[in-house]
Amino acid sequence: MAKKRSHSVRRKPRADAARNRERILEVAKQAFTRSGADTSLDDIAKEAGVGPGTLYRHFPTREELLKAVYRTEVEKLAAAARTFAVTMPPIEALRAWLLLFVDAVATKQIIAPALNALVGDHKKVFEASYAQIHEAIRAMAKRAVQGGDIGKDLDPMNLLRALVGVSNVASSPDWQQSARRLVDILITGSQAIK
Known about the structure:
Elements: H1 15-35, H2 41-48, H3 52-58, H4 62-87, H5 90-119, H6 123-146, H7 156-169, H8 175-190
Helix pairs in contact: 1-2, 1-4, 4-5, 4-6, 5-6, 5-7, 5-8, 7-8
């Protein structure tokens, strides 16, 4: 008689379950951005084309869904940096990535206050993500410096600080347009003097 295993083996999710999870995350991001973090989870499930049980199976709490939306956005940023590095000239890759970063800041602005209210200290949620963002911007800037597109004295974190600063002081809903214009100003101002 064969012995049963006492430990559970973690299986890869089925393809349809993975698609459902991805669809829920994309719809949740759009819903949170459009209507705030208090958006009905049942409405998110309906818009994603899944039942509430499916949503809650993947994300048992609003907090878990908010965390997953943010983590997914950061992972997309990191992946975009790698893709841009092989598909675009250095300065264009840096510009395109900074524009994506503006969108990620918008997502964080919606999610951070909600997580703060839910868990008391949202910084712990974001700490792991900072490393991915720092690595991506440093790699993009290093490539642009090596290509002679931007000056060697540029601290790539200053690019991010400028964009985050615009988002933090902007009182109008069109701050993203201002931040997008700022990307071009930052890129122009960072170019190497030839």
